[in-house]
Amino acid sequence: MTAHIEAKREDIAKTVLMPGDPNRAKFIAENFLEDYKLVNSVRGMLAYTGFYHGKRVTVMASGMGMPSIGIYSYELYKFYEVDTIIRIGTAGAFSSHLHLYDIVLAEDVYSDSSFALVQNGSMEKINKPSKILNDEIEVKAKQIHIPIQKGRIYSSDVFYLENTDFKDAIENDCIATEMESFALFHNAKLLSRNAACLVTISNHFLTGEETTSEEREKKFVNMVLLALATIR
Fold first, then answer.
1. 3-state SS, residue 159
2. Domains in the chain, start-ordered, CATH in brackets?
3. What pLDDT digit, counting tens, does each position of 37-66 carry?
4. Model pTM?
5. What is the pLDDT of residues 79-97, one digit of tens each?
6. CA 134, CA 7: separation in Å to the nearest integer?
7. Measured CA distances, 67 to 15, 52, 64, 179, 197 (Å)
8. Distance (Å, rounded) from C-alpha 95 to C-alpha 150?
């Protein structure tokens, strides 16, 4: 056990799917997993371990932002010997090529966050997922006929921005924004583990379109199915 996770080491599977919202973790467990059990409820950050088509998996919420996913992903990798974390979340688009409910697989992530600098002195502004894992996700997407987009994601420390033109992110070829993947990828690289990020577009900064909180919790099924299909 750690200060933030009450599960025993054997309670956590080698592959963890990580939505931000605890309610989404609960929804996934109840609707997609067999023989699942609640293995963590500390601070309301729900985690469930069960089976999907005979493969063992844990679904655990990360909370919002890099500090939160930074804690949970580090502890899962370091102390629970988790091999793979796939973030399944939402993102806001600022590319005209993206539409609501499109699924984006992060090819890499750009951030102006100080997370990596403070964590271990890294000056890098771009972090990458595990190429082998991304390749596996692409293969599964084709096999189960779930279309995906690929591109660079902007990972921000701030949700309520006074300056919303995203000039820096767009100049760095980002197509959408979220708040967690940079820290996840950094921890995976630091600890020699695997990480990937799948996001569904929940709002669009160019068109003003957005989804409801209920839709974000329950209607992003294709992204969940694709992540589950990739369990090793």
1. coil
2. 9-229 (3.40.50.1580)
3. 999 999 999 999 999 999 999 999 999 999
4. 0.95
5. 999 999 999 999 999 999 9
6. 28
7. 21, 30, 8, 10, 17
8. 12
